[in-house]
Amino acid sequence: MTVLRAAAVTGLTLPRALEASGLDGGCALLTTPSAYRIASVAGGTCRTPEGLVGLSAVYEARVFTGEAELRWTQDRAVLLTEDRAPFPATFDEPVEDLEALTTLDNHYLLWGAVDDSATPGPGWVALSSSRVGHLTVPLPTAVPLAEGHHRRVRLLTREYVVVGDDHGNIHVAEERLIGFEPYLVKGTV
User: Fold this and answer.
1) CA atoms of 150 and 152, how far apart (whole Å)
2) Are 119 and 82 in a shared domain?
3) Do the Cβ atoms of 178 and 64 come closer than 8 Å?
4) Residues 152, 78: one domain?
C-alpha cells in the first residue's frame, strides 16, 4: 500500500507558495488567460529560456519534482508527496491521506519531435510539430541520437489506485506529475 500525503495553505501568492514548497529544480506548468508556459523553478521563481516568467497573470500552476507536486489555484496551494518527512510549516491545513491499493507509473508523449536547431541551450529541449509549432521543455538530460528513431519527450506521472466505497470497484483516484524524460520512438511518427 502506498500513501499519498497532502497539506494545504490558503492565502499565498504563487511566488510565496513556490518558495514555501521547496521544489527548487522542478518544472512548472503555468496557465494564464493568454498563454500556457512550461518553466523551470528555482528560488521561488519560474524561468524559461527567455528569462523570468511574470507570475501575476497565472491563475493555475502545477509544479513538480520526482518527490512532490504543488498545485496552486489563485490563492490556495496543496502539496502532495509520498514522503513521510514533515511538510513545510507554511502548509498547515491538513488534507486527508489517500491510501492507494497500488500505483501505476504512466507517461504522456508530448507533441513534436526534438528540434536541435530551436533548442535554446543546456537544460532545455525544443519540440517541433506542424500542428502545435514549437514547445520548449526543461530537460537536463539530452535526448540521445539513435538510427531509425525519432527523438521525443514524455511527461511521467504516477496514478494512485484505490478501492471504491460503494461497490468495491478499483479506480484511479489521483495522479501526480513526476517529470519529463527523453524518449525514442522507432520508425515513422
Assistant:
1) 6
2) no
3) yes
4) no
The tally of domains found in the chain comes to: 2
- DSSP annotation of 142 reads P
Q: What is the mean pLDDT of residues 6-23?
A: 95
pLDDT digits 0-9 by tens, 41-95: 998 899 999 999 999 999 999 999 999 999 999 989 999 999 989 899 999 999 9
Report how far apart, in Å, the C-alpha atoms of 113 and of each of 4, 28, 50 are: 33, 21, 21
Return the exposure string of 141-180: e unless at least 16 CB atoms fall within 10 Å of the residue's CB, then b: eebeeeeeebbbbbbbbbbbebeeeeeeeeeebbebbbbb
- 168 and 123 in a single domain? The answer is yes
Model-level pTM?
A: 0.91
Shared domain for 64 and 139, answered yes or no, is: no
Closest by CA to 171, choosing from 108, 106, 107, 100, is 100
For residues 19-29, average pLDDT: 94
Q: What is the rounded average pLDDT of the residues 142-156?
A: 86
CA 62 – CA 58 distance, rounded (Å): 11
Residues 72, 125 share a domain = no
94 with 108, same domain? no
Range of the domain at 114: 104-186
